[in-house]
Amino acid sequence: MLNAEVLSNDAVEYTPTLGEEVLRVAQVRRGFDKLQGEQLVLDGVNLSLREGEIVGLLGRSGSGKSTLLRIIAGLIEPTDGEVTYMGKPLEGPAEGVAM
CA-CA distance, 21 to 55, in Å (whole number)? Predict the structure, then answer.
């Protein structure tokens, strides 16, 4: 068993209860530098997702849907605002996350 993984109590995952908030997006802004200046894609976005909810994200082409999903996945950072998962600030992607 030389390669056996040792799990500590810290490795036990918390399972949220139905209706408990798991993700919060608060006043998120995201802009991109363009030749003609900053292009603001997201401005003051707020979102709260709770355990058990099924959510759809709709919008026109270029409205920031993919940008918001990349921020939620931790693949890019917001220019301003905060994203929390399970009450803790999101700091980069979880292991194995890709988009």
Answer: 13
